[in-house]
Amino acid sequence: MENQKFNYDNKIVKLFILATLTWGVVGILVGVVAALQLAFPVFNFGLEYTTFGRVRPVHTNAIIFAFVGNAIFAGVYYSMQKLLKTRMFSDKLSAFHFWGWQTIIVLAAVSLLAGFTTGKEYAELEWPIDILITLVWVAFGWNMIGTLTVRRVQHIYAAIWWYLATFLGVAILHVVNSFELPISLFKSYSIYAGAQDAVVQWWYGHNAVAFFLTTPFLGLMYYYLPKAANRPIYSYKLSIIHFWSLIFLYMWAGPHHLLYQALPEWAQALGVTFSIMLIAPSWGGMINGLLTLRGAWDRVRDSAALKFLVVAVTAYGMSTFEGPMMSLKSVNQITHFTDWTIAHVHIGGMGWNGGIVFGMLYWLVPKLFKSKLYSEKLANTHFWMSTLAILIYAIPLYWAAVTQWLMWRDYTDEGFLQYPNFLETLTQIVPMYAVRVFSGILFLGGFLIMVFNLAKTMASGSFIDNEVAEAPALVLAGKRNPATETIHRWLERRAVRFSILAFVALAIGGAVEIIPMIFIKSNVPTIESVKPYTPLELEGRDLYIAEGCYVCHSQIVRPFRWETDRYGEYSKIGEFVYDHPYQWGSRRIGPDLARAGVVGGPMYKNAAWHYNHFMDPQKMNQESIMPNYAWLAVKNIKLDQTPKKIKAMQTLGVPYPEGYAEKAVDDLMEQAQQISDDLKASGIDIEPQKQMVAMIAYMHKLGKDISGVVEPKEVAMHAESVEASEQKEAKLLNNKADLDAGEKLFTSTCVVCHGADGKGIATFPSLVDNEWINGNKPEQVIHSISEGNVAKGMIPYKAQFSEKQITQLASYILITLQNETSNNK
Amino acid sequence: MSEEKKKATELDENIMDHDYDGIKELDNPPPRWIMLLFYITIGWSIIYGAYYFWLKEGLHQDAEYAAKSMTHDQKYQIESLDADALVAFTDEASLAEGKQIYTDMACMACHGMAGEGNAIGPNITDGFWIHGCDIQSVFNIIKNGEPTKGMTAFKGQISDDKIQKVASYVMSLKGTNPPNAKAAQGEKCED
């Protein structure tokens, strides 16, 4: 048959390569800065834009979506054209894809540093950028499927199966996880709440690893490894088996990020088992890659490209064994919330993704520029620096993880936590963080050597935008002949059917886990006492999200004795029903905060402590590595947003009373005033509309609602004893001397919670209205003062005050305070 | 035929007629061990599911916590001291230990390195006390705290024995007049 002439679009490949190199430098550099910040907090620079909480998401997004993303597109656009013997379907779509993606990256970097974030890891970008991502991704898929339809090759090769799975997988994940309700251009709320949001988020998070960092790279491996080694693929059958099993199984494994957390047992069990079942499908890719090198190992010695590919495939094998092991519940309690996970992902990122990208570039750039690699020696230097950097990264962090875990769970002989102060367990591992900085610099140095080497190669070669090629036109084969063609072979020439089948395989796992979490009520048992956030607490929560606090602080206590002793009662599913988005976190660089508002619990700190701690954490704890947040005391809460936020929450099903949005600002200011007054009592002057006040209100909300539920028996017994033993009548002391003495006691002690006017601060009750929680008879008030109500934060004063003093106090409250209030009316 | 080419030919006995941009594929079966591994992990998963949900042998996390917590409590019978019978230690070893506890528990965050007090906590060296000045009162306030005012309850964190030592150390600071001392709060105690 006559050959048709056409051009390959090499220019788009070049553009994506240049973007890969540029964003690679940026992403790694930001990583080095983030590493420095953890080792030496001074590198937070005291600016709100440069704290670790904002820099870390820039690093992860830059590496995953900018560096790795552009590398994928470079590799895909080159290999697809060659494998299908055609130019990409549409130059316009290619250009839109390229420039759209770069725009997203720039917007992402700017908006994340500015504090616009959804607070969901690896999906932090706000809704306008989410929409742009969707558009660009659709353009990519359209271009890909269009190219398939104009191909000149009968069957689509294994690499392209993986590209297709990548397009479909990411599309499903991104769309489902990004459902959010906007309240302004820069702020939205996840439509999912609490445990549901967690399931969706980690289904997304885990499979972003699968379909952005794994499947496209397996595709690249299937093209560039046999090309660079000039060897045939070891097993066609293995390609088929590990492709389908991997894309089907991966989508189920997300809940392994939520083991021992507030998630139904069945979902956790799916996370465990499907992770274990993923070992063989993952290793299928590794051994097909390594066995393809049979007969070419002598060339590996001489070629940096092949060396990188071999290390990449090996790192992939290690990570995909380590991952399933980390999904076993007993192992997960060590690896989760420690640096183990961080080391794990960097073996994947630096080893597997980095290795494939570097190997590909060293092979592809000389090819595109019709030249030889400028220096094989420099490439080898890069290889050794990069490999060494991986080891220097991973080993200290594994060490740090085990050390910190052992310290967390260590008890003294007497049965107390050996290291009750979280900071001690962090201080111990900070030297390891310093070592990590060195690894980052080494990796960056190697990368820069590669950039130099490739730039020299490009300069010495000649580049052709449109490479002329020819191939015979495709005549589609007809019906399947069962005797000569297997079903899969037939499927390989039916691209659309292949895609539909892949879509079905991908969709099942997520559907089985997410749909029941949302629609079956018993999966999220509610807790009566859990109340929606007050407007001030909600504003504080939004600041917590914007500052990226979740990057270092978890909000979930696991059911281990060593966690409940350290933090308080373990977390229940029903606590999080008003959390849009959930904020459980994934790493504890600082202590868990789920119980920060439980008065009398081990995590509670008062307003003055929080104020001072936000202003200068190192003043409170010299060894702390937390950045300071002094601007919280300067910047105002955006009150014009508050009613919109309340309305949005109502739309999402949070039960605020009807019309509450109009009253929200008044309520907010009232609560803020109380906190401001409380701080004033400690000598701190701050206006109620400052962000600091909202942040403190949020800290004091955390875990508060279930603090009374923790030991319901004790509360009930307490109520009985009131009736049984304390009903003998008491008389108030109505004379000036006693009332003055009562006033003195009140101003020295009680004002902290009940306010100078007795109207109550924050959650503490007013003493001057007609509502009395424990009764207003003299004997009842005396009882409340002497016995307290520890669960609610009322301290028993019988150990500190004499009976007479307590009676004086009760007299002051019931006579003077009540009179003053009624006179003022 | 060169040596290398010959070796390659032997390796490529099962070559298929597939050719994608020069990439060929072999018709080798997957290594048997990888298939076996796959079946074993599937079998393990079925057993795992059965163990937890059908046979209900495996403890779910609430039950597991309750069981482990009970063992924990039995192992450590945490003893409490009788506050009324307390005496302050004055021997150097106990005071040194108390000082160490003062540092370890980050008491200086609120009360200063030398007990001089700061924006959060009161001066504990000046003989003025908010919650009582005898060893029993100091012991009590350390043990039970005063959460809303910022004083942490240390009862879940250190033993009564250690609280007694750090309380003794605090008592020993009286009259040390550290620099930058915070103004007195509470009542003066008679000696």
From TrEMBL, chain A:
Heme b 1; low-spin binds at residues 59, 346. It comes from the Bacteria. Residues 11-528 form the Cytochrome oxidase subunit I profile domain. One of its GO terms (molecular function) is cytochrome-c oxidase activity. Its main location: membrane. Residues 737-817 form the Cytochrome c domain. Binds 1 copper ion per subunit, denoted as copper B. Belongs to the heme-copper respiratory oxidase family. Its EC number is 7.1.1.9. It is found in: Cell membrane. Keywords: Cell membrane, Copper, Electron transport, Heme, Iron, Membrane, Metal-binding, Respiratory chain, Translocase, Transmembrane, Transmembrane helix, Transport. One of its GO terms (cellular component) is plasma membrane. The keyword Translocase applies. Heme b 2; high-spin binds at residue 344. This is cytochrome-c oxidase. It is a multi-pass membrane protein. It catalyses: 4 Fe(II)-[cytochrome c] + O2 + 8 H(+)(in) = 4 Fe(III)-[cytochrome c] + 2 H2O + 4 H(+)(out). Cu cation binds at residues 206, 256-257. Gene3D superfamilies: 6.10.250.2250, Cytochrome c oxidase-like, subunit I domain (1.20.210.10), Cytochrome c-like domain (1.10.760.10). Signal peptide: none annotated. Its cofactor is heme b; Cu(2+); heme. The chain crosses the membrane at residues 12-40, 60-78, 98-117, 129-148, 160-183, 203-224, 236-254, 266-292, 304-321, 341-363, 383-401, 433-455, 498-519. It holds the Pfam family COX1. The gene is ccoN.
From TrEMBL, chain B:
The keyword Cell cycle does not apply. The keyword Membrane applies. It comes from the Bacteria. Residues 93-174 form the Cytochrome c domain. Keywords: Electron transport, Heme, Iron, Membrane, Metal-binding, Transmembrane, Transmembrane helix, Transport. Pfam families: Cytochrome_CBB3 (PF13442), FixP_N (PF14715). The chain crosses the membrane at residues 33-54. GO terms for molecular function: electron transfer activity; heme binding; iron ion binding. This is C-type cytochrome.
